[in-house]
Amino acid sequence: MTPTLVVITGPTGVGKTATAIGVAQALSAEIISADSRQVYRDIPIGTAAPTAQELAQVPHHFVGMLGLDDYYSAAQFESDVMALLPRLFARSPYAVMCGGSMMYVDAVCKGIDLLPTISDEVRRQVYACYEQHGNDYMLAWLHELDAEYYAIVDRNNHKRVIHAIEICLEAGKPYSSLRTNTVKERPFRIVKIGLNLPREQLFDRINRRVTAMMEAGLVDEARRVYPYRACNSLNTVGYKELFAYFEGKMDYDTAVARIQKNTRVYAKKQLTWFLRDADMRWFAPGDTDILSYIRRQSGEVTD
Q: For 4-113+182-298, which CATH class?
């Protein structure tokens, strides 16, 4: 049987963790977290990281392994996962990758272009310019460095703009010249499972989860990591709004409502991304047909 990577993804709050644990237990597999924030320590509440009880049910990888000020990227994730998978497949014909970070999922499933590692010096230089001059200045800089990528970049996503500038400076050539978008061949089968719910039900789950996070101590968690607020690890929904609350820019109720709204917006962005993938098969979380679909697609059983 060809080794099979089962990918379980979908919008935030839909129930990926519980589904992945059930699937991994049934397949005697281990779980790879494809979440660009759960990889960091000290922020388990705001990132909805697997609990100690969940971690005890199935071995997990890439959860809480980095400090908040450590640099990590989709390219590094691809490299680390590709190095790990042979060991997982030596123990089971299946491995489960669970998470909703779009670039992380695509990095493993499709591969990512080989890009230069950004030096601390270049990163500090570029972020200092952004802090001093703002996004319009950075867009003009990107246009000067790489007009081709400037034409297609999401100009409201300052992180994409900044990263493109970093790559141009580090490589000494336009970012667009390094982008091949070639899908890499993998020595294993990939079965993609997308989880989704009716929009109203999903948004209700998101709202209730944010409320549960607040009750679980998200404010105290955010206060503990506030000194690291400039780190990219904390440039995420939940912490940004609470940092604004700490700084007197909004009141508590507004911060909570904003977290709920911004989480819903992010969920829609995830769905837009994943719905374009023709290889994705969609299920409701916990659907009992998921396992039989995986076993058929992997070749373990035939109709």
A: alpha beta
Taking the C-alpha atoms of residue 171 and residue 168, their distance in angstroms, rounded to an integer, is: 5
Give the integer Cα–Cα distance in Å for 110 and 104: 10
Tokens of 57: 């049910």
Considering the entire predicted model, what is its pTM?
0.85
Q: Where in the chain is the domain with CATH 1.10.20.140?
A: 120-178
Neighbours of 158 (CB within 10 A): 15
Look at strands 31-33 and 189-195 and give their pairing. unpaired
Amino acid at 44: P
Alpha-carbon gap, residue 242 to 187, rounded angstroms: 44
CA distance 71 to 256: 28
Q: Distance from CA of residue 192 to its chain's centroid? A: 16
Q: Extract the tokens encoding 3.
A: 């080794």
Query: Rounded CA gap, 119 and 179, in Å?
Result: 20
Question: Residue 94 burial by CB count (10 A; 0-12/13-18/19+): exposed, middle or buried?
Answer: buried
Chain segment 121-161, per-residue pLDDT in tens: 999 999 999 999 999 999 999 999 999 999 988 888 888 89
In which residue ranges of the chain is CATH 3.40.50.300 found? 4-113+182-298
Which of 83, 40, 100 shows the shortest CA–CA distance to 232? 40
Q: Report H helices in 177-288.
A: 199-216, 218-225, 239-246, 252-274
Per DSSP, the three-state class of 212 is helix
Q: Classify domain 120-178 by CATH number.
A: 1.10.20.140
Which of 256-259's residues contact partners 24+ apart within 8 Å by CB, and which partners?
256/210, 256/211, 256/214, 259/210
